[in-house]
Amino acid sequence: GASAPAMLSQIVLVARVDALCAKVRVGQRLGSVRPVIAKEPILDVEGARHPFLALRGAGKVVPIKLSLKDGKKLLLVTGANAGGKTVALKTAGLLVMMAQAGLFIPADEGSVIGWFGEVLADIGDEQDIDRDLSTFSAHMTRLKEIFQIAGEGSLILLDELGTGTDPTQGAALSVALLEELISIGARILATTHLDGLKAYVYGCKEASNAAVAFDPKRGTPLYQLLYGQAGSSNALELAERI
After folding, report:
1. 79 three-class SS
2. Which has the least CB within 10 A, 1, 73, 114, 240?
3. Which backbone phi and psi does 40 adopt, to 5 degrees?
């Protein structure tokens, strides 16, 4: 019979072939393309689709543009509640990790994914009564962990930045956090409802605004990103519709 090292080598080979076949199958199911891999930490992706939504096949997934290039280090996504802001952040993070894992991505041909040293995220409410964490302190705890790891070329995803406390103080603290992350060379995609942050981005040459599109006549989100503009939360319209 075969020796133990030979058998182990065969098992490893079979596992690698199986992994490659799985990558091909998921790529076919998603209609994926081979991304262009850039050495610098940038995003230039057209027609990006959240892979889980695409796999689930629940209705038509609206493709979005993900752009963080030309010296920009921060993209602030604002606009309607339930308008797709968080999905945009998760799509960016998942596509970057897929590309770095050797997977094709659900996007258009010619899409560029840069190399990011880390992908770090603060997404969702991690309130924990058992740990005596409020919504705000949970966000601060996660941000502390991010600052301990983040560096030049890190991709950082921050959802609902500045929430869980006084809006004025939350906006001021968020600006300070963003400026520090920009100064260390990180790349940030963030969402917020705070007007102070929207105004800050308009005055920062290394940042840009993007709004999730919203149809005011129908009162429904369009799930696309409109670059160069800030969006309204449309909270009253959404509340009325619900």
Report:
1. strand
2. 1
3. -85, 155
Determine what percent of the chain falls in helix, strand and coil, rounding each to the nearest 5.
Answer: 40, 25, 35
Global pTM value: 0.89
Beta bridge partners of 226: 211
Counting every residue written for the chain, the total comes to: 242
Q: Looking at the DSSP assignment, which residues form a beta bridge with residue 191?
A: 77
> What does the alpha-carbon distance between residue 215 and residue 194 come to, in Å, rounded to a whole number?
21
Of 71, 66, 41, 44, whose CA–CA distance to 207 is shortest? 71
Amino acid residing at 44 = D
Question: Which 3 state secondary structure label does DSSP give 67?
Answer: strand
* Edge-to-edge strand list for the sheet holding 119-122: 119-122, 155-158, 187-191, 74-79, 207-215, 220-227
Q: Using one digit for the tens of pLDDT, what is the confidence trace for 84-141? A: 999 999 999 999 999 999 999 999 999 999 999 999 999 976 555 555 567 888 889 9
Would you tell me the crossing angle of helices 135-149 and 167-183 to the nearest 10 degrees?
A: 10
Cβ contacts of 236 within 8 Å, gap of 6 or more: none
